[in-house]
Amino acid sequence: MAVSYRMRGQAPHLSWFLRRLEAQGLAAAPEHDTPSRLPAEWIGIELDDCWLDLAVDSDHALEARHAYCRQAGMALLELAGDWLPPAAEHGFMLLVGNAPAPGSAAWQLLDALAPQPGCWLHSGPLHSARFCQRVFAALLHACHSPLLPPDAQPRNLQWEQMLGEQWLLVDKLRQLAACYLTDRIGLTPPYPSPLPESARHYAANLARSIVLTLPQQQDWDKLLQELSALLQTRDRQQAGHT
Predict the structure, then answer these.
(1) Which one, of 89, 88, 152, 96, lies nearest residue 119 by Cα?
(2) CA–CA separation, 72 vs 220, rounded Å?
(3) Which residues pair with 77 in a beta bridge?
């Protein structure tokens, strides 16, 4: 497949993306080709009519690049994920906001970067990929944080501290989802029927599920008090039998 592109900016993961594309038979365009229409400090992949954004920065900065691309007559695709060196060989797990048309040059690049063609997630419009990446990172952290160090040493389980940390993370996750629905969708559930068109994408479904599933902070506090009282009753009962 013939796709002309160039890597732009300075970031460690750019070399891994370039290696992956070259391994899939897509070599970057020579540097002496047509000069770029985009600022040199941008981080990503430039096509003739499209910019694949790989920067890790603020939502405001992403929106500014989007406005610049519109004025230049170019589309902007948002790419988010965990950029790790092994992906240069095996492919990247890609979250894509504002996905391109099937068969386009950008679509071919995404297929080449992914583990297999089509194995990338269209998360929704611009900003949706970043939101999903933040949610997945929080969930991964929640799964790993309670794990004890692998040294086989016996330890008392600090369940109150562990639950407190988990519930704090849950509350932050719920706030993140609520902000996405408010800022990007413009409304929060319950939604009218039929579902608004602006809420018909993966990131919106994910945010809505989080908001509807996770309880409010005060509910966690009440649950913690009930659990603490239950354990105190159990300890008293056990002490009475000894």
Answers:
(1) 96
(2) 49
(3) 52
Per the DSSP assignment, residues forming a β-bridge with 53 are 44, 78
Residue 13 backbone dihedrals phi, psi, to 5 degrees: -75, -15
Give pTM, 2 decimals.
Answer: 0.81
| 120-123 LR contacts (CB < 8 Å, sep 24+) | 120/92, 120/93, 120/94, 120/95, 120/96, 121/94, 121/95, 121/96, 121/202, 122/96, 122/201, 122/202, 123/80, 123/95, 123/96, 123/97, 123/201, 123/202, 123/203
d(CA 101, CA 166): 40
pLDDT (tens digit, 9 = 90+) per residue, 1-59? 568 899 999 999 999 999 999 999 988 877 656 778 899 899 999 998 999 999 999 99
